[in-house]
Amino acid sequence: MKKIFQKPGVNIDRLLQHSRYLEYLTKRVLTFLPDEFSGKITVLGFSSRRSNKEKQQNLIIAAASAAWASKLRFYTPTLKRSLSAEPQFSQLGKIAIKVASANISTKKDKKMPTYSNNSADIIQSSAQFIENDELKKALMRLAHSVGKK
User: Fold this and answer.
1) 17 neighbors 64 (Cβ within 8 angstroms)
2) pLDDT tens-digit series, residues 44-85
3) Contact 119/146 with Cβ under 8 angstroms?
4) Terminal-to-terminal C-alpha distance of the chain
5) Residue 17 to residue 133: CA distance in whole angstroms
6) Helices (H), the chain
7) Co-location of 29 and 89 in the same domain
8) What pTM was estimated for this model as a whole?
9) 85 with 127, same domain?
10) Domain count within the chain
């Protein structure tokens, strides 16, 4: 952090330039995908590295949810072929897809259902007649945790 604040103009300009570059890459990628992906994906990075004496570029794309990531994985082979035809992406090796949702909540939901002791008794008595040991143990744990509330 000290380095950033020592020369803030240079570092901030570099960050802004990189941000604009990623926006540009996102727009380029979106030109090869259906319109429904607009606003659902963003390019996180485009890196070059050498493997076996040849330069390989990796594209990292973030999807808004697991569902959008799955849809994008379906389009990945076509996207890779289309991008590889572009001079900028001519050495594209891998497209990595990450799920990056901003809607993740770490707070517990306070509106958890409450169960009566009767519920725990019903689950426990039902579990006694289950022949599958794993299921029986799972139901007994459930009855125990329901009974605590």
Assistant:
1) no
2) 988 877 666 677 788 999 999 889 999 999 999 999 999 889
3) yes
4) 47
5) 60
6) 2-6, 8-30, 66-84, 117-127, 133-148
7) yes
8) 0.59
9) no
10) 2
